Design the sequence.
């Protein structure tokens, strides 16, 4: 975000506060409960959203050097992510080509080859088949060049490693994020490192978890004992960039700040949330970024990943570790409150009543997000 845009957003928020108004959409909207419980819709989301669009599977520093690897999953697909001897990242389905056994069980590490624990078929970090016991005798007519691991599209951009499950997808990372690339690049995520990471399962639809961060209407209620006192009451603003949303969540200190001071930074008085469609959110704060990720498992079950990313130079030292541990705890506590709300909503949705959710005019960012989901499903 450039300086001009930063000051423009600040002025917009201050004008809304002065007018004692939230950022208002065109009107009240409604969303069907079926959007959050339908098996058919969820399968459609898997096919047209999660498997078609790029997904940030890891921060680049998770594969710090050559011949490193990590195990992951997305949309029900087990994955092996590697960085080969030349430093190039790759992604593969984590199954041996022989009989489908899980190839790698370790969460992460360093290795120049991966050997199946069932029959010892081996593969390189570039996914190529290397060797297998008694291969010539039992499989001699097969072409070794065609026995490499099943590859998945993989690129490194904006500090993350992105994978796309469907090889036929036309939504490449550079194209998908072009509308917001300037902001993305200005965050310099490649210079950050993972301080802490927590993964939990939430008994709620993935969209409920995304929606939880897109309005400030609930801050003074659901977060009354945590972050609520530090933020303005029902005050936020958002902009749409292609499929993505940028939202400004002002803290109570913004109203008393000197915007004319050359040292003024919006980040000192507000959090900026980027909802990078479909499953990546970046909550940008004063001195670090919280990367949250939703990994859908079923219509009513989602894996939620919370990662505290900090400048590499601020990661070392006992004091720094304590500071980041405290920040990460605050993040997990606050998002845990949102998850509890989402689970409560999901229980109501699963009760089977034919109802709709009501979105007020100050919840229009939720409508914009769901419009993008609907448009993608119709494509």
Sequence:
């Amino acid at each position: 975000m450039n300086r001009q845009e930063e000051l423009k957003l600040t002025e917009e928020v201050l004008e809304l506060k002065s007018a004692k108004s939230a950022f208002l959409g065109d009107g009240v909207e409604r969303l069907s409960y079926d959007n959050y419980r339908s098996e058919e819709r969820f399968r459609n989301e898997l096919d047209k959203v999660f498997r078609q669009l790029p997904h940030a599977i890891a921060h680049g520093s998770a594969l710090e050097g050559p011949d490193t690897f990590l195990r992951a999953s997305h949309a029900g697909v087990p994955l092996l992510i590697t960085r080969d001897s030349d430093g190039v990242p790759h992604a593969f389905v984590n199954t041996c080509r022989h009989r489908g056994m899980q190839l790698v069980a370790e969460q992460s590490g360093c290795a120049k080859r991966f050997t199946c624990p069932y029959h010892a078929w081996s593969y390189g970090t570039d996914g190529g088949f290397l060797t297998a016991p008694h291969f010539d005798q039992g499989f001699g007519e097969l072409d070794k060049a065609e026995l490499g691991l099943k590859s998945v599209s993989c690129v490194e951009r904006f500090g993350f490693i992105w994978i796309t499950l469907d090889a036929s997808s036309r939504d490449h990372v550079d194209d998908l994020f072009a509308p917001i690339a300037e902001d993305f690049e200005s965050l310099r995520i490649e210079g950050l490192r993972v301080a802490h990471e927590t993964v939990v399962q939430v008994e709620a639809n993935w969209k409920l978890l995304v929606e939880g961060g897109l309005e400030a209407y609930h801050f003074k209620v659901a977060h009354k004992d945590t972050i609520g006192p530090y933020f303005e009451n029902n005050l936020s603003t958002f902009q749409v960039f292609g499929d993505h949303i940028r939202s400004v969540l002002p803290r109570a200190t913004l109203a008393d700040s000197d915007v004319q001071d050359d040292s003024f930074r919006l980040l000192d008085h507000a959090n900026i949330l980027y909802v990078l469609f479909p499953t990546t959110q970046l909550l940008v704060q004063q001195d670090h970024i919280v990367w949250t990720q939703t990994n859908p498992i079923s219509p009513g079950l989602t894996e939620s990943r919370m990662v505290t990313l900090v400048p590499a130079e601020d990661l070392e030292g006992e004091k720094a570790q304590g500071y980041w541990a405290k920040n990460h705890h605050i993040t997990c506590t606050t998002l845990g409150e949102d998850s509890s709300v989402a689970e409560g909503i999901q229980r109501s949705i699963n009760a089977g009543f034919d109802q709709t959710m009501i979105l007020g005019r100050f919840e229009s960012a939720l409508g914009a997000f769901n419009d993008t989901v609907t448009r993608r499903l119709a494509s």
Remarks:
- The chain has a mean pLDDT of 95.
- The domain at 55-168 is CATH 2.102.10.10 (Rieske Iron-sulfur Protein).
- The chain has two domains: 3-53+182-378, 55-168.
- The longest helix spans residues 318-350.
